[in-house]
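Team,

Forwarding the record for the chain on the shared tracking sheet. I've put the sequence and predicted structure together so nobody has to dig through attachments.
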Amino acid sequence: MGFVEDDRRMEMALFRYRVIAPLVEPGLKEEEKRAIRREILAGEYDIPYSRRTRIAPRTLREWVKDYREKGFKGLMDKPRKDKGVSRVLSPALVEKAIACKKDLPQRTVEQVITILEATGAAPPGHVRPSTLARVFKEKEVTTRHLKDRFGKTFRRYQHSRRNSLWQSDVMYGAYLPDPEDPEEKKRTYLISFIDDYSRHVYGAFYWEERLPALEDCLKKAILRRGVPDRLYVDNGRIYCARQFERICAELNIRRLSQAPYQPQGKGKQERFFKTVRSAFLPEIHALKLSSLQELNELFWAWLEEGYHHRVHSETGETPAQRFAKGPGELRFAPPETIYEVFLWQEERKVDKACCIPLFGNTYEVAPSLAGKKVVLRFDPFDLETVRVYYKDKRYPDARPLDLSVKREKRAEQMPDPEQGLMYSYLMALKERHEDRLRRSLGGTQFSRLFPNIANQNSGGDDRV
């Protein structure tokens, strides 16, 4: 997709996407669109950097049109022509505004401006709401929202087609030897995505419940099963991360948030975890696993040869059969697009020697960028390749001068599998799964799509 955004433009684009997301879902009938449009226009919103609380019909039409024509990028404002020109308020006035906000955090930007004008700190009309809102954001004194205004409670019913809705959650997994201290045990975490219609699952165990692990799991689930229309998650920190929200928006995945303390919306996910605890983990405890790779290989074998081929009590079919023949056209994004979407982004200022630091490494960029603030896009699992952008224009990739750190510290490395496991039920499933993969026709190897990221993090079966 190859575009770069600053914080303000991204925040506005994400707001616009949250508003129009129900209206751009595929398969809607015309009467459904009209009803959704009426609901959107009747609502009140906390619009970033604006005093307005309502969406005009013409504005809504323009947002939908821009999104249909240009995708998520179409919802972003064009860069300011005067970007870089200082228009900040005086430090003394900013200090007073911040003190007023901290005195009562619930105060809106408009209320703070009213107080500043009433006390003579600022003449009427001198402080623009958008300017003060930007200052509050930069100084991290904005009011944090306790509830996603645009998320809707998930209704407990079964969706009528595959990939209409996925659910995702994290479960505590087995304890394994800590790769940094084999004498100690370390907990693992199972991240999974389950298709609401078929109960088909993709998941993997990780060492940490962190954003890189979630992104890795989602990326591999999408490459294998296609892009879902909706994704239902809880309000955990990794699911609320701005990076994760951006990924969903760019792929046109409507992210639905679970209301706090209401876990009933994810009943199918919870039932799957119950099955994992009763049917998979007891088998693991009988083995002496020494690596995360071993755990995942057995889990994937159990999924593909066991869980996916057992008749589900509610659907009357196996998840594999139901997903394979279910209604609904599967939506796949090109692998190159998936790779672009999942790149991380950081801002850095180029020094006089045309160098930039990134996670302990030093890179050299084009001489014309000296003294400028640039945007870097990169794969956290491969810091050798770093893309450079300035004002939405891509420049030559940064050249590593000191590459002492090969991957970002939160991006886990998957150890190589070890041999010598005792024979068990899970090993039998693993052998059957490997034999099925060898005999399958038309398998595409993940490593051929992305040679730099094929062995990242969760590893495992690389056929998409």
